């Protein structure tokens, strides 16, 4: 029930208090929660940028439809998916698995080859769409842990992807900005926090078969 109460408390914060900062201790908890997110095959084919630099955030503001959360929040999380799955992404995962579980890399070769085969069958467009969807799973963990810590967040898709990629130098790294999530603390002036949460009734949302 405590989890439900925290979810009822959270909302997509429209106006942050620019003077309140998330502590380093809580930031590490949030990073750990994102790190532990589920992902297909466990590959985590994304990178998460945490942007504090005011000058960088000012550059991103016009590319974010001038939404004030970009510059006023304590930290700006930018989830970036890999635009294409390369064999070395899988090799690195296999190496990490072997090291973490104290296994022989050769014993995992078959699993690595299987992933390369199945993912390699997909077009570049399908791969990019798939890796982008993985970032939504990580975002879910971020929103949940922020609510647990009573830190506000605002998941955002309203931004110019190409401009983000250009400003942050993502394209040359094989990355693509997929989601943005400012975090921090709500401003007392944000009237959105006082609005009742609108959700479909359970009987409309769920169907038992």
UniProtKB/TrEMBL annotation:
Its cofactor is FMN. The keyword Oxidoreductase applies. Keywords: Flavoprotein, FMN, NADP, Oxidoreductase. Pfam families: Nitroreductase. One of its GO terms (molecular function) is oxidoreductase activity. It comes from the Bacteria. Residues 9-185 form the Nitroreductase domain. Belongs to the nitroreductase family. This is NAD(P)H-dependent oxidoreductase. It comes from Flagellimonas alvinocaridis. The lineage of its organism: Bacteria, Pseudomonadati, Bacteroidota, Flavobacteriia, Flavobacteriales.
């Amino acid at each position: 029930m405590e989890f439900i109460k925290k979810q009822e408390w959270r909302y997509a914060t429209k106006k942050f208090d620019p003077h309140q900062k998330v502590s380093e201790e809580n930031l590490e908890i949030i990073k750990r929660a994102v790190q532990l997110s589920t992902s297909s095959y466990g590959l985590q084919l994304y990178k998460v940028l945490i942007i504090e630099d005011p000058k960088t955030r000012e550059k991103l503001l016009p590319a974010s439809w001038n939404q004030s959360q970009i510059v006023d929040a304590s930290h700006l999380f930018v989830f970036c998916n890999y635009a294409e799955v390369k064999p070395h992404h899988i090799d690195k995962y296999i190496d990490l698995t072997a090291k973490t579980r104290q296994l022989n890399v050769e014993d995992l070769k078959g699993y690595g080859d299987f992933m390369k085969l199945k993912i390699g069958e997909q077009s570049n467009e399908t791969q990019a769409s798939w890796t982008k969807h993985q970032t939504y799973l990580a975002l879910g963990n971020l929103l949940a842990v922020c609510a647990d810590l009573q830190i506000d967040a605002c998941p955002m898709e309203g931004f110019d992807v190409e401009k983000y990629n250009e400003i942050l130098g993502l394209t040359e790294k094989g990355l693509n900005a997929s989601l943005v999530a400012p975090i921090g603390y709500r401003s007392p002036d944000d009237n959105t926090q006082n609005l009742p949460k609108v959700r479909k009734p359970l009987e409309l949302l769920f169907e038992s078969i």
